[in-house]
Amino acid sequence: MLPPARLARRRAGLICLVAAPILLTAATAVDPALGDVEFAPAIAADPAAARLHTLLLHWSWVLYVPGLLALLAPVRRRGRVLATIAWPAAVLGLATFAGLTLSDYFGLAVLEVTDEATFAAVEDQVGGYGWLAAGWQIPGMLGWALALLVTPFAAARAGHAGWWYPAAAVPGFVLYLLFAIEEPPLSLAGPVLLVVAHAVLAVRLWSPAAGDDTGAEQAGFAAFRRTLGVCCLVGAPLALAAGMATLPGGAFHIATDMAGDPAAAQASAFFLHLAWLLFVPGIIELTGRLTGRGWRLAQVAGGVAVLGLLHFNGLMLGDYAGIAAEQVLDPARAEAVAARVGEYASLSLGVVLPGMLCALLGLILVPVAAARGGLVRWPVPVVAGLGVVAFFALTVGRVPGLVAPALLLVAYGLLARAVAAPAARPEPAPVTA
């Protein structure tokens, strides 16, 4: 029988696992660029449908991350090799891929402000950015494929799902991969099959007795997750420091013209993306250890933080779009494109607002939950809160910008040390005569 904290965590993941392919089905159904049509004219002819498609697709891949992780969490020794591949693929690669979908908003803005020839020129410019290819596209595409293909086999190998599950889920993903841009109903075959497979699996795993992972902390895969989480809790603020240190401009003044130093702007965008992304596996592992006092706060705080960070890291992709606009377009049209992107309510309300609000609020609430659960002392969430405030208040230059990463490194470094410590084992009950 699962304890309440793990049961709540697993059920939340199962809800995401079912919601993700439903949104994928809806995104495919409203895509205006299906069939034998050219992409640019098709989305320009129906921009509202194009924006809705992008929003649904982005949310689909975001929700797939906690959904797949819920299937991998109870893996012990059997299936640990596959799980060791699938876990980072989902939590890092698939999350990156979700951010890549947001580039369609920028492309649509370029089409609405300029023309198809200019759109092609901007796309070519973005395609030449090495930081984007190596830091986003390659790990994103690879992680997306590995997460969706390997996770079903890992769950089945571990015995938490029957072999019918990969036999249904993997063909569903392959059908989507092959026919995602074909005319319906062919384009919908894969997503619908994924909905059925995940819905059946969620029903079977909903019971508290299903897939009991008691004692999983001692398993080989759990040790890998813990090590990865500890490294990410330290690596995230270090990546944030690198992102702030490489911002174009000087020690006390950040340049507004990113095209003036495109190499630094690209590097900064990558490190900022990496920083918010690395917090995710660390927070998942951290809040997973809080199963006693304050476990409800821990699960809520972790859920808020992870959901926000999965959105927030993808927003850094906009920096590459901004650089390309400044390099290809004249200043007036580049400004018009940026303004048009800001007018998209689906982006601002569906991605930007939940991303920024939940991510930064979660980075404070998670240490609060850890202190409430006795994992760390109360000064730790205070330092974390000061770090979040400094991120907003001290971003005028590279030197002031390093204050926030330094504070977050102290706070989350102490949290990492607490996670790395062996979990306390319950004392055996006294033997009575």
Automatic annotation (TrEMBL):
The keyword Kinase does not apply. It comes from the Bacteria. The chain crosses the membrane at residues 53-73, 85-108, 128-150, 162-181, 187-206, 227-247, 267-288, 300-324, 344-366, 378-396, 402-420. Keywords: Membrane, Transmembrane, Transmembrane helix. This is Uncharacterized protein. The lineage of its organism: Bacteria, Bacillati, Actinomycetota, Actinomycetes, Micromonosporales.
